[in-house]
Amino acid sequence: MRLLSLCKSKIHRATVTHTDVEYIGSIAVDADLLARAGLLPGEKVAVWNVTNGERFETYALPAPYGEGTVIVNGAAAHRCRAGDKVIIAAFVLTDEPVKPQMIMVDDRNRFAGDLVDNRWPSKPPLDLNEPALEL
User: Fold this and answer.
1) What is the pLDDT along the chain (135 residues), one digit of tens a residue?
2) Domains and CATH numbers, the chain
3) C-alpha dist (Å) from residue 54 to 36, 81, 101
């Protein structure tokens, strides 16, 4: 069996509302957005800061539902400022195709729609049961 790390969830261009370097760690995200993107409390996430290019990993925690909160906590707070745009993504190790739950948000971190990449074919782009390519 060959496992691949595939994107399962993405919140595209959320706005950081607050940072707290004194908090133990994590990124707190509006619970509505977590649910819509299929992210669980405590799940490992990659955070890519579109504003300054910083990247880090942490775990997601729910913030109050519907408030649009995105708070970067702990040491990662040094990599973000309020107002920065970030992409929050999670991956899964699997040997099966994954249809990721990707959402877009507006400038106030309200759900704006499902992210659809028109370059993706309607079928999975590769057969996960085929042997790996030899390079």
Assistant:
1) 899 999 999 999 999 999 999 998 899 999 999 999 999 999 999 999 999 999 999 999 999 999 999 999 999 999 999 999 999 999 999 999 999 999 999 999 999 999 876 434 344 445 555 555 444
2) 4-114 (2.40.40.20)
3) 25, 11, 23
Concatenated DSSP letters for 68-135? --EEEEGGGGGG--TT-EEEEEEEEEESS----EEEEE-TTS-EEEE---TTS-SS-SS-TTSPPPP-
Phi, psi dihedrals of residue 113, rounded to the nearest 5°:
145, 170
Enter the pTM of the model: 0.86
Q: Are 104 and 12 in contact (CB under 8 A)?
A: yes
Catalytic residue numbers, as ranges:
26, 59
Number of residues that make up the chain: 135
Instruction: Name the token pair of 104.
Output: 């877009």
How many of the other CB atoms lie within 10 Å of CB of 17?
A: 20
**CB of 37 closer than 8 Å to CB of 14:** no
